[in-house]
Write a structure and sequence with these properties.
15 helices, 28% helix
Length: 516
């Protein structure tokens, strides 16, 4: 039997995502929309609205038409939302490109998405130029000899294009995700998907115009795109933008810009909880740290909250869900460690036994399935992958193992495919990772499936030590053995300088497995 959100359904307006996000922007006038966290440069809401309108006209003049795909290959900048929404306003679909993409990654995404125009920055032209032959044009957000800039296009006197979209069927964005099945695939998200998730999520995140929101999570990732860029701007909040995470720069921006809410991934929560340099900054304006993109251990969340004197919350989602399905509610005084909160409005979920496919009751872990207006339309050009992820009844099979308690709060245990099978027992890597992070001498850790001499799976820990700490592999194994059931013990340890992570903060387990 499906579980339902404890919150009332909300009405989803039948508008484009740009109409939803920027419909009230011009009226907000000089209120700051975006602030550069490095320089303090500010873009007001009036400037944002004008820039989107002018660039939409410029892109139309450059040949962008409804049905075209524009690739956006950039770190977070003040112009990122301008380019994104201008392309949408010109009728295009935007495919967001990971800033860390290699030339091969870029070639594959341009080919697969069918993008005709690439918008980038001059620092990325060493990679972008390699795909010029696949494109009609490359534009830059700053300046580079031989390339037109978006500011040149914004200088046009042409009228803005009058584009009508069907929110239910028109694709707004094509982010790429490995999802639950293999290689990166284009996730088809319609205007209705994005609009739905902004409206649904606002009921739990609850931005208002007084909020100053840290935007260090990449806008090219669906977490940054929806929860930061689109949600904050639709509510009139101010985004403090950084192009990448650097701890000192991040802390300086939190302090100098008096940031009230920081949306991060677990590695940043870990730094805030443990790194000594945090004590050198005045973070008294910070009210909420919200973590997503990967599981956050309850003890680590509490350690961060205690140190900073703020609230630490988390949520859950995936690219294929636009991305949010669960979130701890802003302003809820309850402190329940480890939960990702309740289902957001208009959302149903099931917990399904991985082996039998049977529905499970409260308190029992199984694969989480989701149904709601935020569920993707499918994977671009990959019907078999779509069918393997979204069933005939519209349930998206997340590939994540979790459970719901009697109060309607959800807990994520691990990925179905990342569960380690040790002598027939299922061992969740996330549980062991949280345990390891509780050791004061361990700066970071990850656990993957290794193999013993007989070829059987075992929990293999990769450990990055805190500066000045000396631990042996046996010390690490003993620490875990004292705290877990015998079958969950770490059976092998490899020390590494750092745990490899994606830009969104997810552990790159394939890179670690390659070291075995």
């Amino acid at each position: 039997m499906p579980f339902r959100s404890p919150m009332a359904d909300v009405e989803i307006p039948a508008v484009s995502v740009t109409e939803l996000v920027l419909g009230g922007a011009a009226a907000r006038g000089d209120h700051p929309a975006l602030v550069d966290g490095r320089t303090g440069q500010t873009m007001t809401y009036a400037q944002l609205a004008h820039g989107v309108e002018r660039l939409a006209a410029g892109l139309a003049g450059a040949g962008v038409r409804p049905g075209h795909v524009v690739a956006l290959f950039s770190p977070n900048t003040l112009l990122y939302p301008v380019v994104f929404h201008a392309a949408i306003a010109a009728g295009a679909t935007v495919t967001t490109v990971n800033a860390l993409s290699t030339v091969k990654d870029l070639q594959n995404q341009i080919t697969d998405s069918g993008a005709t125009i690439l918008v980038t920055i001059s620092a990325f032209l060493d990679r972008a130029a390699a795909v010029a032959g696949q494109l009609q044009e490359i534009l830059v957000c700053d300046a580079a000899e031989g390339y037109r800039s978006v500011t040149e296009l914004m200088a046009t006197a042409d009228p803005a294009p009058a584009v009508t979209v069907d929110p239910a069927t028109t694709l707004a964005v094509l982010p790429y995700s490995s999802g639950t099945t293999g290689v990166a695939k284009g996730v088809m998200l319609t205007h209705a998907n994005l609009v739905s998730n902004v409206v649904q999520s606002q009921q739990v995140v609850k931005y208002d115009p007084a909020d100053r929101v840290m935007a260090v999570l990449p806008f090219f990732h669906i977490y940054g795109l929806t929860v930061l860029m689109n949600m904050a701007l639709s509510a009139g909040a101010t985004l403090v933008v950084l192009p990448r995470f650097d701890l000192a720069e991040f802390l300086g921006a939190l302090q100098d810009q008096r940031v009230t809410r920081a949306f991060v991934a677990p590695p940043i929560v870990l730094a805030l909880a443990k790194h000594p340099v945090v004590a050198d900054y005045d973070l008294s304006a910070l009210e909420v740290v919200f973590s997503g993109a990967a599981p956050l251990d309850g003890d680590l969340a509490q350690a961060c909250a205690t140190r900073l004197g703020c609230v630490v919350k988390q949520g859950y989602g995936m690219t294929e869900l636009s991305p949010v399905s669960h979130a701890q509610v802003h302003g809820d005084p309850r402190v329940k460690p480890g939960t990702v909160g309740p289902l957001i409005p208009n959302t149903l979920a099931r917990v399904v036994d991985v082996a039998t496919g049977d529905d499970l009751e409260v308190g029992r872990p199984g694969e989480i399935w989701i149904k709601g207006p935020q569920v993707m339309r499918g994977y671009l050009g990959r019907q078999s992958d779509t069918d393997a992820t979204v069933d005939a009844d519209g349930w998206l099979h997340t590939g994540d193992v979790g459970l719901v308690d009697a109060e309607g709060d959800w807990f994520i245990v691990d990925r179905v495919k990342e569960l380690i099978k040790y002598k027939g027992y299922q061992v969740p890597p996330a549980e062991l990772e949280a345990m390891l992070l509780g050791h004061p001498g361990i700066a970071d850790a990850a656990v993957v499936a290794g193999h013993d001499a007989d070829g059987e799976e075992i929990p293999h820990a990769f450990v990055a030590l805190a500066p000045g700490t000396e631990l042996s592999a046996q010390d690490v194994q003993d620490f875990v053995a004292e705290r877990v059931a015998p079958y969950k013990r770490v059976r092998a340890v490899t020390f590494v300088p750092a745990i490899p992570k994606s830009a969104s903060g997810k552990i790159l387990r394939k890179d670690l497995r390659a070291l075995l």
